[in-house]
Amino acid sequence: MNNTMNLLTMITPAMMIPIFPLLGFLILSLFGKKLGLMSGWIASMAILGSFLCSINLFIGLEGDQQLNFSIFNWINSGDLQIEFGFLIDQLSLIMLLVVTGIGFLIHLYSIGYMHHDEGFTRFFSYLNLFVFFMLLLVMGNNYAVMFIGWEGVGLCSYLLIGFWFKNPDYNNAAKKAFIMNRIGDLGFLIGIFALIFHFGTLDFIDVQNQLTGFESNAPILVFITLMLFIGATGKSAQLPLYTWLPDAMAGPTPVSALIHAATMVTAGIYMICRSNLLFALAPYTLHIILIVGVATSLFAAIIGIKQNDIKKVLAYSTVSQLGLMFAAIGLGAFESSLFHVMTHAFFKALLFLGAGSVIHAMGGEQDIRKMGGLSKSIKITFVTFLIATLAISGIFPFAGFFSKDEILAKAFEHNLLAWALLSISSMITAFYMFRLLFLVFYGQFRGTEQQAKHLHESPISMTFPLMVLAILSAFGGFFGLPAVFDSTHQLNVFLAPIFNASKLVTTEVHALSHSQEWMLMGIATFAALMSIFFAFSLYIKKQQLPENDADLTGFSKIVANKFYVDEFYHKVFVNPIMIISDLLLVLVDKLIIDMVVNLTAIIVDALGRLYRLIQTGSTGFYLIAMVLSMVIVMFIQIIL
Amino acid sequence: MLSLELLFIPLLASLLLLFANEKAAKPLALLFSIVEAIFTIYAYQVFQQNGSEAFEFQMPWVNKPQINLHFGIDGISLLMVVLTNLLIPFIILSGFQRTTKRVATFYALLSFMHFALLGVFMALDGFVYYIFWELALIPIYFMAFNWGDENSAKVTLKFFIYTLAGSLLMLFGFIYLYMGTPNHSLDWSILSTQHTCSCNQTWLFWLFFIAFAIKIPIIPFHTWQPDTYQSAPTQGTMLLSGIMLKMGTYSLLRWLLPIFPAGMHEWQPVVITLSVIGIVYASVIAIMQRDLKKLFAYSSIAHVGLIAAGTFTLSFEGMQGALVQMLAHGINVVGLFFCADIILNRKGSLQLHQLGCIRIQSPWFAAFFLVIVLGAIALPLTNGFVGEFMLLYSLFKYNMWLGAVAGTTIILGAVYMLKMYQEVMLGDQVEQSEPMEGLHWNEKVVLIGIVALIFILGIFPSIVTNLTQPAVNQLLKLI
Q1: pTM for this structure?
Q2: A118 lies in a domain?
Q3: A103-141 residue pLDDT tens
Q4: Does residue A398 sit within a domain?
Q5: Are B116 and B163 in contact (CB under 8 A)?
Q6: Cβ-proximal residues to B14 (8 Å cutoff; 6+ apart), any chain
Q7: A333 and A475 share a domain?
Q8: Is residue A123 part of a domain?
Q9: What percent of chain A has pLDDT over 90?
Q10: Chain B hits for A152, Cβ within 8 Å
Q11: Phi, psi dihedrals of residue B187, rounded to the nearest 5°
Q12: Interface test with B, best of A75, A77, A134 (most B CBs within 10 A)
């Protein structure tokens, strides 16, 4: 009794979580002009409000308690009985804290970063709207509400990538992101239809409760999970739908940090973790996810080596890290992938914000070939960026080390090939990240003189988020200490109520022994250090610079051009559909269908002209015609 | 009786407008349409409380052949009446800034059209229905002919003859049915209960279906539509696309299904396949359209194709989805054409390559336009999503592959709409471009109204589904 009372009191803070940013969006978009720079603070406070409410829930919900409530009946028609309702459990709590916490820091950062932009208020109103939809995505208690958030964040991503809408390239990038997401969304939608059709509900809990009777790899489960996974590949930028994410870097840098690194792109992983029992019952799908994840991780990492735009490097690294998370899902290690979602949110947001600070200092320059030696002039940015780079490279004891190590250990247990490939991908990651770090912060300054004078550290509103994220990137890994440290994996304990059911159906491989775990950590650390040393010798000792694009030859040219995937898509999908569009109009619509219609008219017209000839008006002709026809009629009668 | 009163107001308006002076015509037309809209709210209340009885009206009209003036309303009819009476004030208001020649005649025709459309949606006797069906064609013909662009004479003639040819098929069908019924009647209640044998339904189905398919239009009966939408005056295009095409989709539910349940079943796969092909076909063509109005015309073909496909799944979700989408499409397409009109009035062109950079000049207009576009591409929480969701689900249930093919509309829709929006609205200021003056009060009212409706129906679609649910259940009992 006391418990339910306790839960009821938490509905209000739960409701307030999405309402704050929605209000922020409405206020900013309706009264934006009058607010000026205030709007940045209003938007930030809205997210802070959501964050505080999330903490309130985090403290209030104990053990495996969950808050599940419906707000109103959204669609009710026959099979389609869909409530608009929220589910707050341990999984959504983690995501809520990440989204609102990092969201708040990035809002704060943006106040400084977007200070001079004419679209200042518009930027914050979009940002608030994004957080609103992201919260719907995370809080929804069924797939339909999740889909609202899912498409909503896609819209905000579209608006924010194309934020500087005067630039046609940015507009193209925005459009591309939306359309590629929509391709995935069709898969998601079909998955939703199949869920309604076979389970009669979209409610997460209801679906999960009905899964007990199913065998592993039941065809319908494989089908549904595959469709949902297609949705995830779109939103989370996996092969073959990843090409929008590097282009999405057209948006302002805080957007890249928030949407295209820390939150939205991890929605696919959240969705699968949300349906973890469903996926655990479909090992075929998990196997495909593993293949896609490993391939994406490796493929994107290779492309990352040859990128020279600071944000592009980070973008490919995001794709690669997301691949790593999907690989973890493919191994059935849902909680490990979520752990990596969390640590990745810390250090990747930090990397992007740091990159923003660098770009800010360089007066808009993004080419790392034209930077160098910045460690002296922008110290805070440098130190925090270094921490994030160590974290993503998997150096002990930074956050990325623990989460990455956990995934690699799981891969070692299940699939040696996957382990080897993911290890290579991690090595490459350490290499290109340190390549980036060395080229930007070490050596000689290679920019213009004007830029050299302009170099300055960012204001406190920008460096404060950097410092907070640096602390999280440094120590965030301690939420999930591995068994060898003789302590509890706090995150896994916290998330246990979510993943217990799927644990029972996944094949249990006997856990690694402590010596094996030590060995794996040793190998990973050694590999990362080797990569760093290699980068060091190339870019610090030999002071090499990446070649100009024109000088590239052979394989490195192919890599620098991202394996020509975009060009391939253009030739195979985009151009043909444009040609088909024209052909359909000219050949089918105009020439065939409309011709038939017009032909009918022409025939009628011609017949009219023909019969007119008979109407001569001469009585003699009519008489002859009459007599003739009578004779013919009589003849026919006689013959018959 | 309420049905007669609903009919009476626009009829009175059109008669009065004939004699109104040029200055008073617009306000007078608006006034009457608002009175009608308010009266509709009252009628809606009555329907919620007492059901359809208060709307029932029956009176012998002609003895031989036996024709009764029979009007009535159920949830489906009421939805169409609401759609009509909701959109007409917006359509009238949208023309307030434009100088129209012979303005009184124009609005008299528009009001007469209003009257005829309501008649179609409420008639329950086959002959009366047919009369209103044809009556609706006359005013729109003159509006498109006299107030359209330079091509209108040729285009309108084709439109007129094409739809008339379809209607004649239907008339022939009605006469055949009349001769066939035991007590010679075309009353809906008799036609929907005493079915002709399924051997006859097989071919009679097509007489009616073609008439409706031309009106909707379903591919391949659509070639009149893009040209007509383009060359008609925008208010005429709004009437055509927003309301008049719903005559076709409404008639599928009101007449085709109850009279020919066996025919529906027999031809179901053919019609659904045709409609699904039409969705993809029209969407693909829309991608490369260079004229804004034509692009919207093809997108409209794609949308109504989905409505037809869903209707023919003969499932509860399909029919409910069709009804939700009829209302949503009506609102969105009127919004789209209105935006096109605003652009045309200011820029003097609707060619995509001559437009651009409007967002810089008019951010509020850009925001409204974007919301309407999002409604058209079915973003969740807009009205377009719910209908499309239900329709696609019904198709998926009928046949997974057809559902998946039809589902490409959510991708292709995003392609052509966002491409259009980018070309028309985004980009940096071009020097030679005309300045975009701000929105007038009437434009703001219309845009705000439409945007509000888009969200209200997207968030609370049960307003529609609860209204139509009993009627749809009734229909499903007939098959």
Answers
A1: 0.93
A2: no
A3: 999 999 999 898 888 889 999 999 999 999 999 999 999
A4: yes
A5: no
A6: B108, B109, B110, B111, B112, B114, B115
A7: yes
A8: no
A9: 52
A10: 379-381
A11: -65, 140
A12: A77
